[in-house]
């Protein structure tokens, strides 16, 4: 496939890009290296991709880049770029969320239309559900986001649906459920947790720890992204890890894998949903999705990566249980 990956230097984008290149696909990667976290970390994420001569790297903002030119001739655009972070999305920063999650998504869809109806796979989020009416949550339930971030991700999904219906741009939105693995964003729970356990720091837990998440290993997400691109599926599908685990259970698991852990308990964070759990039947029927990596295996690979002196990530799960 000839692929475009937006947000190519991010956590999921860089894993997706490396996997596509290793499978023989061509990739044009776009990223403007925002300073939400240290851009040097993102540059490091691209090291593997830059070794391939089938990778073309374009450092640009989606609202400025010549997207029609970049998309022309592509089989698929994986639109992963965006402003992440549930908890910081309140207040004055909302304009950034609007620009990077809504305006940028519209720019991508418009360019995909003009470039000849290129397929767009959009990285949506479980946060569109808010505190869902039932668990595991199916796509047919009414989304009710409880954070401004979730509102912008839902708006992006609606734009995808609109461009599909109005112009025939084939779009698929995957609602990703709390993705984790080596290179996870430094503001997310597991990367902080594993760093604290391995390096001996303190992990700050928001709330009672009874909140649950359907944590999804990044290799499972990468496989879902590629499989949906190669399928005829359009519409919305959940991508979950297959089990619902509380943060308290995660703390025990990390302590087992990496040694004792110091935890400071803080109040719950505004905008955090209480629970998530994905019903993945639509993804299973639509493009054969089933998660393969257990939470224990996935966390063990993060611990191993953190311990590696070079800072290089562990690839063991990608060779075995997490076959892509
Ligand atoms: C994550 C991503 O950050 C979002 O971009 C994504 O859209 C979302 O998943 C999703 O699936 O919709 P979140 O579930 O908040 O959001 O992921 P984590 O940062 O890993 O947090 C998991 C739980 O740990 C939350 O209850 C959070 O409050 C808690 N947490 C997080 C802590 O207790 N301490 C921390 O330092 C960070």
UniProtKB/TrEMBL annotation:
InterPro entries: Epimerase_deHydtase (IPR001509), Lipid_A_modif_metabolic_enz (IPR050177), NAD(P)-bd_dom_sf (IPR036291). It comes from the Bacteria. Residues 4-232 form the NAD-dependent epimerase/dehydratase domain. It holds the Pfam family Epimerase. This is Nucleoside-diphosphate-sugar epimerase.
């Amino acid at each position: 496939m000839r692929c475009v990956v937006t947000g190519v230097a991010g956590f999921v984008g860089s894993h997706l890009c490396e996997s596509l290149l290793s499978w023989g696909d061509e990739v044009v990667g776009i990223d403007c290296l925002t300073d939400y976290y240290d851009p040097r970390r993102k540059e490091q994420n691209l090291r593997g991709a830059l070794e391939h001569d089938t990778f073309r790297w374009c450092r640009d903002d989606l609202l400025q880049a010549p997207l029609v030119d970049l998309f022309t001739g592509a089989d698929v655009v994986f639109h992963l770029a965006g402003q992440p972070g549930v908890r910081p999305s309140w207040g004055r920063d909302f304009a950034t969320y609007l620009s990077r999650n809504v305006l940028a998504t519209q720019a991508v869809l418009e360019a995909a239309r003009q470039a000849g109806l290129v397929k767009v796979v959009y990285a949506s989020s479980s946060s569109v559900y808010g505190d869902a009416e039932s668990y595991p949550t199916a796509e047919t339930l009414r989304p009710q986001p409880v954070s401004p971030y979730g509102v912008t991700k839902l708006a992006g999904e609606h734009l995808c649906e609109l461009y599909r219906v109005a112009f025939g741009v084939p779009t698929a939105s995957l609602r990703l459920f709390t993705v984790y693995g080596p290179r996870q964003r430094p503001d997310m729970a597991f990367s902080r947790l594993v760093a604290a356990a391995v390096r001996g720091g303190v992990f700050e837990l928001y709330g009672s720890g009874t909140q649950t998440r359907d944590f999804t290993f990044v290799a499972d997400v990468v496989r879902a992204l590629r499989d949906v691109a190669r399928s005829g599926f359009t519409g919305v599908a959940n991508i979950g890890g297959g089990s619902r685990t509380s943060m308290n259970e995660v703390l025990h698991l990390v302590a087992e894998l990496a040694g004792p852990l110091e935890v400071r308990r803080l109040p719950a964070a505004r905008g955090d949903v209480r629970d998530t759990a994905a019903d993945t039947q639509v993804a299973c029927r639509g493009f054969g999705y089933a998660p393969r990596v257990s939470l224990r295996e996935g966390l063990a690979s993060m611990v191993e990566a953190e311990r590696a002196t070079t800072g290089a990530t562990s690839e063991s799960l990608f060779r075995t249980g997490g076959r892509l």
